[in-house]
């Protein structure tokens, strides 16, 4: 594995499978009386969150703590960032405190890359979501969840990702990772919510959800990210929901074995109907559980061994 | 990428070459180590049969017995021992696997290793007589890690240790309760246990590692 995890594209097929297999072993920990391993004792993981997050931050915190690392939570609110401190000065502060890994979420695409390769800090950088770019650990936990429900492998499986692909870092990371793992990914979105250059992505796309559903082994619904929208991408929420929402009728179009996923947070009634989200084929809550195991695996593989020798350092 | 988990093998006997970054780990192909078999298949079977009887004798039966093998070859040995004891006593003896990777004290010396499967038998280990099973007892560090791992899984009544080969050179105050064969070795030698389940054949091999090759 590389020293940092910035993009799902950083992972080779072997790397990705190693993370998933490691996570599979670590998932057993949840059934034990003592849900803790001593592996990262004495190491410090900083959660550096410039954007709001519930599950990702808590998930990383739980993962680091279960590996016995010390966790420092940093959120932009109530820190010197609100007084105008730059990313660089924040990074230098963390380095001075001896951070072995920095888990960063930032509103600007590329901020984790800047953090990793600017020389400001020596530790590993884990991207926990940057702008509309990537969210690699989410893609890993999604692949992990799919693998568990689809016969142990996503190779050759058909995954449909529906909704606001344009603003979704989850969609991009999933497409890259799932392609690496051999899955066939189809994006479904209104033309206005597909990014420019989607033709170059390792997946296909369509505007017709009803046609895609019967061929899907898993369908992943994305939230419409209104906070990132500065223009009108669709006429009304109601019309979007009618054409691209997963309601009970569309749910019945799915094959018997297909699972329904959502990275959260959900807008019930918008992209997904409440009865679908709560159905027994919805794995949305399990995705959160799996997030902890997958993030433990990533932290272990990045921090647990000897520091990798930098070839081009 | 993680190295394979064959901790006891020096590079000369390892089937997979180590990372090219570890100094002195790759011997020259033109200078093969001297290899000799010290135990054959029948010797291993006899040793395991004897250990099985000793375990039963020491614990006055097979009640509450749980055998936990340390991956990879310890797991296969634990299964064989469990089968043997089941045959002796007529009551089934549970066998499982205990991965100790996350508890090792040398994790920071090498790239992160892949984890092995831990499988604790359904009855758990609380109040049981746990016999840890490994193929080679060397520094004792693996067993120390296993004791820590056990601690997080429950509280056995007793923990005992069975190994197929004790090669000496302990670095910690740890000893085995049941030993298949004591093999006095020098630090420059490597001991390798081959088992049908993993390697396709049963044997215990000693190889003279090349001068300067890393042995641990």
3D structure, described in words:
The complex is a heterodimer of chains A (313) and B (216). Chain A is an alpha/beta fold and 313 residues long. Chain A has helices spanning 13-27, 55-66, 87-96, 111-117, 136-149, 169-180, 209-212, 237-244, 248-251, 274-277, 284-303; strands at residues 44-49, 70-75, 101-106, 124-130, 158-162, 184-188, 204-206, 218-221, 259-261. In chain A, helix 1 (13-27) crosses helix 5. The mean pLDDT of chain A is 93. With 216 residues, chain B is of the alpha/beta class. In chain B, 24% of the residues lie in helices and 23% in strands. Chain B has helices at residues 41-58, 73-89, 141-153, 196-199; strands at residues 34-39, 65-69, 95-97, 129-137, 158-166, 178-182, 189-194, 203-208. Chain B has a 5-stranded parallel sheet with strand order 3-2-4-5-6, with helices on both faces. The two termini of chain B are 20 Å apart. The chains are: A alpha/beta (313), B alpha/beta (216). Chains A and B meet through helix 1 and helix 11 of A and helix 3 of B.
């Amino acid at each position: 594995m590389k020293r940092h995890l910035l993009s799902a594209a950083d992972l080779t097929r072997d790397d990705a499978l190693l993370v998933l297999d490691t996570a599979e072993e670590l998932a057993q920990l949840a059934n034990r009386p003592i849900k803790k391993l001593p592996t990262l004792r004495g190491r410090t993981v900083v959660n550096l969150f410039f954007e709001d997050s519930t599950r990702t931050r808590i998930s990383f915190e739980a993962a680091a703590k279960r590996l016995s690392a010390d966790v420092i939570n940093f959120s932009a609110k109530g820190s010197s960032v609100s007084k105008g401190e730059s990313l660089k000065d924040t990074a230098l502060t963390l380095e001075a405190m001896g951070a072995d890994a920095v888990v960063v979420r930032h509103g600007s695409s590329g901020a984790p890359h800047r953090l990793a390769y600017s020389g400001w800090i020596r530790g590993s950088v884990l991207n926990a979501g940057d702008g509309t770019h990537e969210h690699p650990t989410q893609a890993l936990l999604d692949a992990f969840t799919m693998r568990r429900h689809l016969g142990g492998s996503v190779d050759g499986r058909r995954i449909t990702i529906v909704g606001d692909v344009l603003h979704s870092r989850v969609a991009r990371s999933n497409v890259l990772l799932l392609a690496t793992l051999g899955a066939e990914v189809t994006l479904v979105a209104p033309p206005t919510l597909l990014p420019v250059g989607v033709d170059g992505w390792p997946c296909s796309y369509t505007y017709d959800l009803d046609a895609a559903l019967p061929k899907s082994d898993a369908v992943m619904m994305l939230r419409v990210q209104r906070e990132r929208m500065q223009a009108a991408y669709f006429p009304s929420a109601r019309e979007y929901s009618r054409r691209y929402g997963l309601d009970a009728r569309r749910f019945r179009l799915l094959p018997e074995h297909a699972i329904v996923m959502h990275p959260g947070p959900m807008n019930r009634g918008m992209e997904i109907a409440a009865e679908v989200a709560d159905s027994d084929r919805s794995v949305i809550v399990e995705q959160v559980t799996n997030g902890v195991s997958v993030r433990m695996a990533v932290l272990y593989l990045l921090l647990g061994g000897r520091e990798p020798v930098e070839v081009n350092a | 990428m993680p190295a394979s988990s064959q901790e006891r093998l020096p590079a000369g006997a390892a089937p997979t070459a180590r990372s090219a970054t570890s100094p002195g780990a790759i011997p020259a192909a033109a200078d093969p180590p001297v290899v000799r078999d010290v135990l054959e298949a029948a010797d291993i079977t006899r040793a395991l049969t004897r250990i099985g009887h000793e375990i039963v004798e020491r614990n006055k039966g097979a009640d509450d017995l749980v055998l936990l093998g340390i991956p990879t070859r310890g797991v296969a040995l634990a299964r064989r021992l469990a089968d043997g004891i089941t045959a002796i006593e007529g009551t089934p003896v549970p066998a499982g696997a205990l991965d100790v990777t996350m508890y090792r004290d040398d994790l920071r010396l090498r790239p992160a290793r892949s984890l092995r499967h831990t499988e604790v038998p359904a009855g758990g280990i609380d109040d049981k007589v746990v016999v840890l099973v490994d193929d080679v007892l060397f520094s004792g560090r693996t067993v120390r890690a296993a004791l820590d791992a056990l601690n997080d899984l429950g509280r056995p009544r007793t923990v005992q240790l069975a190994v197929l080969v004790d090669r000496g050179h302990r670095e910690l105050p740890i000893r085995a309760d049941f030993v298949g064969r004591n093999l006095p070795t020098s630090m420059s030698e490597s001991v390798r246990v081959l088992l049908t389940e993993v390697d396709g054949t049963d044997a215990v091999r000693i190889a003279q590692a090349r001068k300067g090759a890393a042995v641990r």
